[in-house]
Amino acid sequence: MLTALVISAIFGWIVSLTLVIAVLALARQVGVLHMRVAPAGALTTAGGPSVGAKSPVLPARTLDGAAITVGGAAPGSALRLLMFVSATCPLCKNLIPMAKSFARDERVQLIFVGDDTVEIQRDMIARHGLDGYQFINGPDVGQAYEVGKLPFAVLLDADGVILSKGLVNSREHLESLVIAHEMGVHSVQDYIDGLKPELA
Fold this sequence. Notes:
With 200 residues, the protein is of the alpha/beta class.
């Protein structure tokens, strides 16, 4: 009887140790997998002013008629996010509430930029509750940044330097613009490309 108890206790310890080793091995594999799977990041494009360069300085007017300078230095200001949207873009409609929430949480000044008729833009502003945001309408800003696809975002600092930019279609993509800036890389894709030789 005593022998059976000793054998069962030894067997229990062996099973417990095996489980601990299996959990540690699994945790290591999850860590490796986490490093290999690219985080969601804004898709950078080749056109337009590059990340790290001074942004174009453009005089513009909001739909309300207020004069505004897009780009350039804005001493004492927070980070500025230029959000290029369109009323005919389904992704834009889904992203606008996320952009508003993101800007509020990250304390980023959010400026919307579009290129359509005033009536269509005013309807979009009313539908999405954008009354409290600056909304620039016209082709000049989009052409200066060579925006070809929407939704597109550009993150600027107080000195007017382009910190990051890219096509965005989720909150994670918006967050990746700030993360890329904080990590000192041009984009999350650049960071992942730098990791690939280490993981190979």
